[in-house]
Every structure is written in C-alpha cells, then in structure tokens.
Design goal:
mainly alpha; 2 helices; 0% strand
Amino acid sequence: MGYIRKKLSSNNIIERIITTAVLFSAIFFGGMIISYFLLPEGLLKNKNPLMSW
C-alpha cells in the first residue's frame, strides 16, 4: 500500500497518470468479474421495458 501511495503522490505527472489508470482498470475489471459471478443471471437481463414491446 505504501508503494501505491508513493506512486500516486510522485512529482512525475506521467507516473501518477499511469498509476491511476492501472489502479482504475484493475478495480473496474476486478469488480466486473466478481459481479458477473456473484449476481443472479436475471437481475440485469430484460429490465428495459422498450426491449419487450
């Protein structure tokens, strides 16, 4: 955690941008994969009323 905090508070702007992008991608895709396996199959399917008319 200290390594990530050090990279996010670095003086080099490129290093901060790359670290932020990598962290966002890891959290986003990790959350997407976890929710794909944990959420019920019908929770998000066919909820749009315009699709069923």
